[in-house]
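User: I'm new to structure prediction. If I give you an amino acid sequence, what do you actually give back? Let's try with this one:
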Amino acid sequence: MSKRTTKMNLGEGKGRTDFKRLDAMTDAEIDVSDIAELDADFFKNAEVIIPPEKKHVSIRLDADVLDWMKSQGKGYQSRINAVLRAYYEAHQSKR
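Assistant: Good question. You get back a string of structure tokens that encode the predicted 3D arrangement of the chain. For your 95 residues, that looks like this:
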């Protein structure tokens, strides 16, 4: 069985990035001095990870749970999946 990892932010609020200012910047104005160069050594150990297949399902959830998930903002279905994945992975080690 291949090991697959899914990680996501479960929503700690909106970010503080000023996307309008960033969009207005030219490439030359962006400071990339702190970004490491990706050389051949990096790619020797790089690994392509293909996310698991998603399946479309219909599921019944308690209204308050669904409302709370939706209130966290865009991506509530991905958050539900992340919670279920964490539960799944926690119980895989007990087998």
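You can read the tokens as a compact description of the fold. Here is one thing that stands out. The first helix runs from residue 19 to 24.
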